[in-house]
User: What shape does this take?
Amino acid sequence: MPVLTVLPDGRQLSVPVGTGLLKRLRQAGFYPDAPCGGLGKCGKCRVSVNGAEVLACQTAVEADMTVLLPERYRLYFPASSGKPGTGALLAFDIGTTTVVCYLLSDTGEILATASALNPQTAFGADVVSRIRAALAGEGSALTAAVRRCMEALVGSVCETGSTDPAAIRRVAVVGNSCMQQLFLGLPVENLARPPFAPLLRQAKTVACGPVLPCCPAAELLLVPDIGGFLGADILGCVLAENLQETEELTLLLDIGTNGEMVLGSRKGLLACATAAGPALEGAGIHFGMRGTDGAIDRVWVENGNLRFHILGGGEPKGLCGSGLIDAVAVFLEAGQINRRGRVAADLHLTQRIFLSQEDIRQVQLAKGAIRAGIELLAEQMGVKMEEIQRVFLAGAFGSALNPASACRIGLIPEELLEKITPVGNAAGAGAICLAWDESALTLAQALAEQIRTIELSSLSGFPRRFAKSMEFREAKS
Amino acid sequence: MIDFEALAQAMGELDEDTVKEFLEQVMAEGGSDAGKAMDACQKGMDTVGKLFEEGEYFVGDLIYAGELMTDAVETLKDALVGTENTGKKAKMILCTVKDDLHDIGKNIVRSMLEAGGFEVVDLGIDVPPQKVVEAAKDEGISIIALSGVLTLALDSMKATVRAFADAGMRDQVKIIIGGAPVSEDACRAIGADEWAHSPQKTVSVCRDWAGI
Assistant: This one.
């Protein structure tokens, strides 16, 4: 059997002849970026094999091989922040892209926080590719990947918070339906085929040990999903922002790979999901990347010159979501993108980094889907856009986003600009509520039953709205 | 007198207000020019398809064009009944395959096919293989277009092609598959006759098959 040597760690793995390199790396706990799910399309799982650059997903191991992984392909855990104390509770937000873990005291005080890239990213950037991987027999590998990541996060926060993981009493988890089901090791067939009915309909408490052995004494709180693509994460956002009790008509937007939104007030809540795709998180964009060191995260014009900010300083490597939206806004204002999204030539930020026509098309699809969702949600509720009093932007991307740019490209209606407030990781905040407030789980159950959902594609006005929402407003000349 | 060149151009530019004005004028004048107006709209749709293939237009523009075309037919339909505007039409079947509910792409293709001279029997979305076979048998149709967006749709396309083979009809029909997940490889694996990513290609392939 060939031996695969993985550098820089130097680990040696035995590999049956003909096994895909990406697959074997994933089994061993290395998770290369593979937003396209290993189809050979995105070019992001590039590794160096015996000195030559190859795509891991397109390479089979036929003989002894040495592979050099870029630093970023290994699971990384940013240093956990916080203060020591006696931790008792854990809250998790399992995002499609990022997993966040909070260690809490008995009274809900945050003692430590840690986050990591969801290692399932090696199976594809969006839920659809994860579902496809699960259906192709990788279900247990996906489950193992996320649990491994969660256990490592528990270790990290407990170390910072000087807490014995075995003493944890309760663990609350939120995530979208697909993340929840894969975490629990449930089949995901329900998410692959219409009518996309949710599997977890009932809030419940089970033993945590069988799922996360590092917390043998804890109970695990399971939050119900609202719909097939409206998960416990958006429910967590509603809980955290107390939407069900607010007087003001509020739009809560969780813009991620799967855009979820809720509109309403104490008089009633209406929710929908849109398939925005991973473009806004930098995947599927030629120079797209996540918001890590080297990413251009802000772009603006100063005295007629294009300026940008690079995370961590240094040389720019690519654009993350917020930088992408800024860049499109700047190029629109400069008249270099027309109403239909057509560009005459590549739009350069630096000599090396540019936006192509195809990149602009991906942005159009994503923003068109979200914008159409906002408009149809308002229409279904029978309210005008200007009647919306507050817009909460949730999620890592929503919080990093420059609201003016989001409105300039038409992702969010321009009349809502002054009403936008970023609220950070609202899904995580919801998980925290659930972990320490015993009545929150009952409330979550009630909300899951109360929130009405609409299926956008079933509305007759959807195609035209989607089409119009893909257009841009041209610069005023 | 209506300027049909200008109507075709307005359609090609997706200028909804102008298209609407022209069509309302046609009807206000008694509708005798409805056939010519329809031809002009179809010419405009050819322009839309061309601009899409050139990258000038995007999916949103195609959807919008399809909506404009549907509206145009709606406005003109009373006057169109009984007029022989485009001669005899070739019949074909179009549907989104089983387990896929996406109809935007299918509807775009339908309006382009209709503009291209087909009478399209649209079986809708999430259509099981057997239903496609039965419709082809019942109506004596030999051109089948299968649409899908999900990767899972490829399995359903394959099952549909197999259902024609099982019914002993595979050599009597021509099958084209279309949508984001299809490719040359997928076409071969599925056993379809042709594949397309653009509605323009679907129209030209089907026109070749129908000899129109």
In short: The first strand of chain B starts at residue 90 and ends at 96.
